[in-house]
Amino acid sequence: MATTNWNDFIDQTNRRMTAVRGGIPDVAAGFAQLAKAAIAPGALDSKTKELIALAIGIAARCDGCLAFHVKAAIKYGATREEVLETIGVAVYMGGGPSMIYGAEALDAYDTLVAG
Fold it and tell me: What residue range is the signal peptide (predicted)?
């Protein structure tokens, strides 16, 4: 992807997802409930769960996942060092492609935390 403006990417993706949610409202509502339940604190806190989601997004090479899970991880207090360790686990599990997407995730973190 190699985007340089993660905030614009999030805005653009949100607009596109609004159209999808309008077209399949029941599916969208179910997905929203699933996401809420999955990230709710339990044995793992929400920050840890978002970092797990970020690692999966990196390994799956999902641009939107990088943007939204980095943003959520920041919301839950993730540090740059925690994001870097998450990238390390993703590289371990996903090899070279995860290294490239890990760099994208770090850029998203640096951009979004700066505002």
Answer: none
Reported as a single tens digit per residue, the pLDDT across 59-108 is 999 999 999 999 999 999 999 999 999 999 999 999 999 999 999 999 99
Domain count along the chain: 1
Residues 6+ apart with CB under 8 A from 37: none
The residue type of 97 is P
Q: For the chain, give the number of residues.
A: 115
As a whole number of angstroms, the distance between CA 48 and CA 99 comes to 20
Domain membership flag for residue 76: yes
C-alpha–C-alpha distance, residues 93 and 96, integer Å: 10
In which residue are the tokens 């997905």 written? Answer: 31
* Contact in structure between 1 and 63 (CB atoms under 8 Å): yes
What CATH number is associated with residue 79?
1.20.1290.10
